[in-house]
Design a protein that fits this description.
About 50% of the residues lie in helices and about 10% in strands. The strands form two sheets. Strands 1-2-4-7 form a four-stranded parallel beta sheet. It has a three-stranded mixed beta sheet with strand order 3-5-6, with no helix packed on it. The protein folds into two domains: about 230 residues, Glycoside hydrolase, family 3, N-terminal domain (TIM Barrel), CATH 3.20.20.300; about 55 residues. Belongs to the glycosyl hydrolase 3 family.
Amino acid sequence: MRYCSKPILAGTFNHDLYASRGKLMGEEGLWRGNLENFGTGANMHRTPFGGRNFEYFSECSTLTYIAAMDEVEAMETTGVHAVSKHFTGNDQEFQREGVSVFFNEQAFREGNLRAFEGALREAKAGGYMSSFERLGTVWSSASYAMNTEIVREEWGYQGHSMTDGAAAGTGYVNHGAYKDHAVEVFAAGTQQWCLDSNVGHGIAAMQIARQTNDGYILELLIDAAIHWEYAIANSGVVNGISANSRIVSITPWWRTAIDGAITAFSVLAAAGAAALIAGTALNWREKLLEKRVEGKKDETV
């Protein structure tokens, strides 16, 4: 299904439409087996030419607060988690990896933070994605003040948090150097790395923990895992699973039949190959003997 852009939706000033969009997107995700939906942007329009304006509601923090809250709350009822992004202050797309955004606390709370507060604090979104820009001089994903003091402690948020696609590419601007700050980011309260891999930032933090024998780093990684498991446990992914459910490995009859057929044909193929080699060798030997016999006849004559 195709949906209109967020500014058009916001311009309806209609609670039911805000919620309907979240509900429909959640139902689609549920039937597709998705755990999360990353389509709940809640940043503000700082300029009409903003590169992500199509997925952010408006230039008004209060309107965004209300619209995002309605959308996220409805989506969460389907069992698909809404992941609000890009938290927060993503004022431009051009060179967003290095831009620094400055504001005083009042402006931050009345603007960018309030825009997301409805989704995270009131609607209890399952997750949020931080942004690439810096809050002052600190990368948003590494901001303890924002990710822990405000979101966790002040808002009482229980979902999981993640970076933007910081694991992709190489070089500082292309996000590769962030691996050097893996522990710093976990310590700030950010628990996942978008587009990471099994050799990425979590592994880097684990290696540092082992090298330094630092239990605090292990505690951070455990806390990150707990928040992720909490998100899974409170999603539609666990539908049909109870406290007595068990995961049992079984081999269906058709798998056994296929394996047996593969084995039988493999044996036949090997036997055929052996027969071919033996036949070729025997034929070669007979031809060699014939040549020797002919040679002896020529010598006799």
